[in-house]
Write a structure and sequence with these properties.
CATH class of the largest domain: Alpha Beta
Structural class: alpha/beta
Mean pLDDT: 96
Shape: globular
Order of helices and strands: EHEHEHEHEEHEHEHEHEEHEHEEH
Helix content: 25-40%
Number of domains: 2
Bound molecules: NADP nicotinamide-adenine-dinucleotide phosphate
Number of helices: 11
CATH architecture of the largest domain: 2-Layer Sandwich
Number of strands: 14
Strand content: 15-25%
Oligomer: single chain
């Protein structure tokens, strides 16, 4: 498709923001309208982020200035709880601007499209307001979805994330000293991604998040009892039927490893096996939290919403 859409990015300094800048730069149909960061305001993008060869400077834009710019698309890559000021004023002053929010703020709002394309692209209503899924939540849902009709509740998920998942605001979860030779369990009850997945799949899940000393990537282990006996062959069938046509979900019979998937745009699901005479299943998934868990998925959603090829600007094989 021969068109160019302008994109404004709020939260451009962050881990996901910088990945989005890279993807926008390499997308034939997207042109950066602005990159907003308070800390980097005034600096050129290439100087502040030497790996990104892009014209333009970071600006510190308030919500009303963002709405006045009226880009075709506004991506919000801000910490949770900050999107509303931007959304409200865009709704009022520039309602034709499409919004893609990477935070959890609108993932439970039925007026917004929940954009996990492999699972929700057919259910889309309007794509003007898109809530991008969480990174752990993407890893969990891709692993669970092919088994949804046979799992008994709750499904148990244990996730280990690299510390980029905790953003750039200093905390024990991204403190190299705390994480050195260590693994940090946290939020044992009610993690927001536990609620997100339970809500999206309409089945209760239990999620045990951990953060480890590697920078990026997620390892997810999903375990569930089954309401009916299934064989390893049927498991194979279910995963292949679900994802064989999906370039951004790779399947493998072995357990997928974080380091093999880091810096790639796809998720990998694998290592599925049944035990207990076919009534208990374990399956693993991994993805790069900053890519398929965030920035890549946002671009996939934008592509679908704008009528570009779904993988435009996304390296894949
Ligand atoms: N990291 C991940 O793996 C991941 C995966 C999926 C989804 N997400 C979600 O994506 C969002 C961004 O995550 P991230 O990891 O990129 O966070 P981050 O690295 O901490 O970056 C946050 C960005 O927001 C800006 N910011 C912070 N406070 C602000 C405020 N009060 N007003 C305006 N700008 C502010 C920061 O830039 P300045 O301080 O320079 O303004 C920075 O650019 C979060 O909601 C997160 O939950 C993250």
């Amino acid at each position: 498709m021969n068109k160019t859409m302008t994109v404004g990015l709020v939260g451009a300094r962050g881990h996901t923001g910088s990945e989005l800048l890279r993807l926008i730069k390499n997308h034939a149909g997207l042109e950066l309208a602005f990159a907003s960061s308070r800390e980097l305001a005034g600096q050129s993008i290439t100087t502040a982020m030497p790996g990104i060869d892009m014209r333009g400077k970071f600006e510190d834009l308030q919500p009303d200035q963002v709405a006045e710019c009226a880009p075709d698309i506004c991506i919000l890559a801000l910490p949770n709880g900050l999107a509303k000021d931007f959304v409200d004023i865009i709704d009022k002053k520039s309602p034709r601007t499409m919004i893609v929010d990477l935070s959890a703020d609108y993932r439970f709002d039925p007026a917004w499209h929940y954009g996990l394309p492999e699972l929700t692209r057919l259910s889309s209503k309007s794509l003007q307001r898109i809530a991008n899924p969480g990174c752990y939540a993407t890893a969990m849902q891709l692993a669970i979805a092919p088994l949804l009709d046979v799992v008994t509740e709750p499904v148990h998920c244990m996730g280990i994330s690299g510390y980029s998942g905790a953003g750039t605001t200093p905390s024990p979860k991204n403190d190299p000293e705390v994480l050195r030779d260590n693994i940090l369990p946290y939020a044992p009850f009610g993690h927001i991604h536990e609620r997100e997945v339970s809500n999206q799949l309409n089945t209760p899940i239990r999620f045990m998040p951990h953060v480890a000393s590697f920078f990026r990537g997620i390892s997810m282990t999903v375990c569930a009892s089954l309401s009916t006996k299934i064989s390893n062959d049927e498991l194979d069938d279910r995963y292949h039927r679900a994802y064989d046509g999906e370039p951004l979900v790779k399947l493998q019979s072995d357990i997928p490893h974080v380091r093999d998937n880091v810096n790639f745009h796809h998720a990998t699901v694998g290592g599925w096996a049944v035990a207990d005479n076919g009534q208990y299943v374990v399956v693993y998934s991994t993805l790069d939290n900053l890519l398929k868990g965030a920035a890549t998925q946002a671009i996939q959603n934008i592509n679908l919403a704008c009528g570009f090829h779904e993988l435009e600007g996304i390296p894949h094989d």
